[in-house]
Amino acid sequence: MTDSLRIADRDLGSRLILGSGGFANHELLAQACRAAEAELCTVALRRLPDPAHPQGSILDVLDEAGVDVLPNTAGCFTARDAVATAQLAREAFGTHWIKLEVIGDDRTLLPDAVELLAAAEELVDDGFTVLPYTTDDPVLARRLEDVGCVAVMPLGSPIGSGMGICNPYNLSIIIERAGVPVILDAGVGTASDAALAMELGCDAVLCASAISRAHDPAAMATAVKLSVQAGRLARGAGRIPRRRYAQASTPADGMPAFDVDVEGAAR
Amino acid sequence: MTDSLRIADRDLGSRLILGSGGFANHELLAQACRAAEAELCTVALRRLPDPAHPQGSILDVLDEAGVDVLPNTAGCFTARDAVATAQLAREAFGTHWIKLEVIGDDRTLLPDAVELLAAAEELVDDGFTVLPYTTDDPVLARRLEDVGCVAVMPLGSPIGSGMGICNPYNLSIIIERAGVPVILDAGVGTASDAALAMELGCDAVLCASAISRAHDPAAMATAVKLSVQAGRLARGAGRIPRRRYAQASTPADGMPAFDVDVEGAAR
Amino acid sequence: MTDSLRIADRDLGSRLILGSGGFANHELLAQACRAAEAELCTVALRRLPDPAHPQGSILDVLDEAGVDVLPNTAGCFTARDAVATAQLAREAFGTHWIKLEVIGDDRTLLPDAVELLAAAEELVDDGFTVLPYTTDDPVLARRLEDVGCVAVMPLGSPIGSGMGICNPYNLSIIIERAGVPVILDAGVGTASDAALAMELGCDAVLCASAISRAHDPAAMATAVKLSVQAGRLARGAGRIPRRRYAQASTPADGMPAFDVDVEGAAR
Amino acid sequence: MTDSLRIADRDLGSRLILGSGGFANHELLAQACRAAEAELCTVALRRLPDPAHPQGSILDVLDEAGVDVLPNTAGCFTARDAVATAQLAREAFGTHWIKLEVIGDDRTLLPDAVELLAAAEELVDDGFTVLPYTTDDPVLARRLEDVGCVAVMPLGSPIGSGMGICNPYNLSIIIERAGVPVILDAGVGTASDAALAMELGCDAVLCASAISRAHDPAAMATAVKLSVQAGRLARGAGRIPRRRYAQASTPADGMPAFDVDVEGAAR
Amino acid sequence: MNVTINGEPRRIDPGATVASVVSMLDVAPGARGVAVALDGEVVTRSRWPETELRDGCMVEVVAAIQGG
Amino acid sequence: MNVTINGEPRRIDPGATVASVVSMLDVAPGARGVAVALDGEVVTRSRWPETELRDGCMVEVVAAIQGG
Amino acid sequence: MNVTINGEPRRIDPGATVASVVSMLDVAPGARGVAVALDGEVVTRSRWPETELRDGCMVEVVAAIQGG
Amino acid sequence: MNVTINGEPRRIDPGATVASVVSMLDVAPGARGVAVALDGEVVTRSRWPETELRDGCMVEVVAAIQGG
Questions:
Q1: What is the pLDDT of residues E5-49, one digit of tens each?
Q2: Three-state DSSP class for A51?
Q3: What are phi and psi of D57, to 5 degrees?
Q4: Which helix (H) or strand (E) holds B139?
């Protein structure tokens, strides 16, 4: 398909970005990678050793699935920590792409606007290709673009909440005014949420928990993949307008008449 | 795929039923049939000659596309007319399947509950396989099933309105209590509506205007097809619950620390 | 206030009708009557003796509060039972007004369209002033009006569910096309639901469980009363349109400028 | 009523704050003040002379209505301008209360998180009592509280848009976590929006365009006043839970039976 | 003779009237909001004293309760 | 004699059959998806040639169109 | 000398004060809700008569309007 | 000397390098996706062997995990 998504200097054939968090094991992640047909998958950095996954590096899993790494700064609460984490990620993964997360609150995991913008500016200056996880605030999205972010990644609802897109209005305003790709990040609970995001005009969807914590992650990965494709196609196909009243799909003319008595009496 | 849908004595591989109304010409219908990969497509009956489509029968179009005919009784306002139209359709198409429509109002095209139920009962007694277009009233859906309908086809919103599913609650109640397949009929405006219907538990979706009146009908047909598949898969995959607060997709443990002064002071 | 509601031959000063079901005792009902300032309150009929309320008749409570009785046919599943119950109510209360309920299902308590319409027709013929509890189906509402009902009482959502108005679209269509008063019946969960109903154009609201089962019924009765008044006033006041973008409430002209350097440089 | 709202060192008897923008003339503003029974009303500052209202000061109108002035910084795009405007307002009106607005965008008039927080901090340090107009971002609301704002004023939707509360989820999170009063600011379109805000737990509502630009501002002012009271009462009254299925408001026991044949046969 | 009163089978003496049945249920003579159906048909209060029950008949005696 | 065909009053010769009416409408003999009702009752295709019209009767000749 | 008053370039006589500028704008001496900034800093009303303008300075004279 | 490795106080011999710390953590020499910060600054892998730790320094050794 020629409908690729250009972010910075890269063309992506898939508009679904996978988040690697929440899979019960690497095998389920591998299955989801194959089902999702994603080209990018997030990874985080934590201190060694990683007691949860002693069995080998996630990098090998992603390599085998042909998926590239998109490192993130998950868990950072300050610009300072996010910048340092991004620099470690650049060293660890040999990529200057960074999904920037700076969180303001450990119960909602919502972004901190001020720290996020500061970190984005510093990382852009340091040569990073920055994709910030942000709120659905159109002004903040604009400012992130203005400091040089190559995409903006507004949330639909909090990470892992599965509430979908709580405020489609704000999301659509971001999309209307953005000069860089808009990627829905966080909140997808099921396939239709992803379709809706694409129909609203998102350029891509990042999906982690909805897939990784589904009862059957591979099936949900397929579902979200199809749904992203469906939403993208539907956006381009030019949907019908909403109307308050019906519009017949069958013409009213030419209806046969069966009531002999009435018609007979009328003759 | 083995996930076929059994209606009466028939197994359908596709869970998207196409409505043929509203296409600008037969060629666009043919393209949509191929894109939708539907196995059933509605047709209506009108007096000959049909001034709108002098160029040949819709039946040839559907034949060529390998799609079977599902006749309807569109335009009927009484049980009497609907029964007579169904009988004509049986003769014309050699099928005892009938999508039963009995309308109560020409601006909303909403079903008339009383006439619909009367017509359904009479047609079942006459040997028809009846699929009634109905409101989203769970009691009416139940009564239609009780008189022998092989499926129920509740609306999401009025025909051609593109408003999607106005009352997901009622639809879900119908689904929970139905012993026959539930097919969303009317209201789909775009792909995500179809995905949502399937996620709610519909067994199939009928789509006419959303495809036929889209700017690019074939593209929308593909989009809705993918979306129906996505919604079906997502339903089966076991979605994550909705939560008010976030659930981290990245573990909090093992975060590195970078602030030399603070940590140094603590030592 | 001169904004009275005419139903049949009666003018009501209050647009809130109280439902008496669900109060823990008659004293709470009495308090709610006073707080609600309603003029009509529903009562049901059951076999004597009534073990739940041995302490005296609800009629005395309503009399003392200056509230008239609106008998209902709650619990009836067939037109036959509803007609007989209405006739008993006429005898018991000396009123030919009847809130007609014919239920199709004991879990949803949703109306049965066919039985309801049959009962309405029979009761109108028998001289009753019929106010039917109905679904939000615009066609059924129209047919109830056509057989002579003096008002229609569509539900917002199931009795006692507190889900508010599940389908504002259907309700607004009923309102647009009705020639008799439209009274929202069932579904109100809290005050804002009642305000919304009135803003949509309902002529009145019936409220039972939202008041009777609230933690503080009298306070909720006051809240719903105020909310009905607010919604009625707001409907008449001509609300502003919804817009996608902002409209400044403060003029942009005449902003002072404070930045000496910039302005200085420009001089 | 003893249910007053304490903000900083002041007790307000009314939980409706009026915005003065958008009234066609001072007389309509005066009528709305009386109808709304508000105790605070916003005013802005602009260069003299004010060509729109040559006929006398808004201050006289508010004085006569017994309403106190709440100056704002409407129209400011930077912390610098907002601080300077607030200082002018303090001089002009002799109050250190300021409704702080720092806008990021002239089409959405949405707040600029970074500039807003900077201005809030500076004004608090300068001795102001700061009530910031903010987005519905819970993290930003928290940070505004942390720098010493005496209340937070999240928007429901853009100024003058009349879209109500686009994201009740975010608003409720702000309310749950706030240690200062939460005042809904911007977005109210009609009375029910205000009731909903109060039911969600807002401490007060500010309303400008919904009243000033209504066809009948005084009627809408009364409507919103009643609605705020209704929502506040309903919040305190303890609403019933939402349920998927019905809960009968009439007991099922004791239903009379009317069908002679059936019961006779059963004996 | 055997009758059914409010769903319960009862033996009563021949000649019993609706009025006597109502008083059996402890309904005060002037009690408000009470109505009676005999075999599915309403018996107006003025006719309670003169309306005799027949063997096998079905009597419903109802009154107002909270509801709706 | 006078008949109504698809809602239009028509004069036709006595002895006309359903088959002759159908051919009057330019329907090819083997045309698919065509059905006929005579006075509200379906006439199966095999009986078109033998079914004669009566004076005052009402004929509906219908075919498949896009719809639904 | 050249100053800017409410965004407009104006020539005024040396020695002009904030008070004289305010009166130029037809503001009554006791007018309520009026405030002045000189080069971005508020000048309290009591100091209007004594505060002289300098060449190139920027004066903002504002008052209450409907808004917010 | 005393250092902090991944938040834990450790005693190590003078002369220890980043490389030796990494190997202490059972990281294979060619392990992928590993990075090190010394006192908050990244130490590129090529400089691990030559970078010596100082008393009181803070080392973070991190690697890829599932997340985001």
A1: 999 999 998 889 999 999 888 887 778 889 999 999 999 999 999
A2: coil
A3: -80, 140
A4: helix B138-146
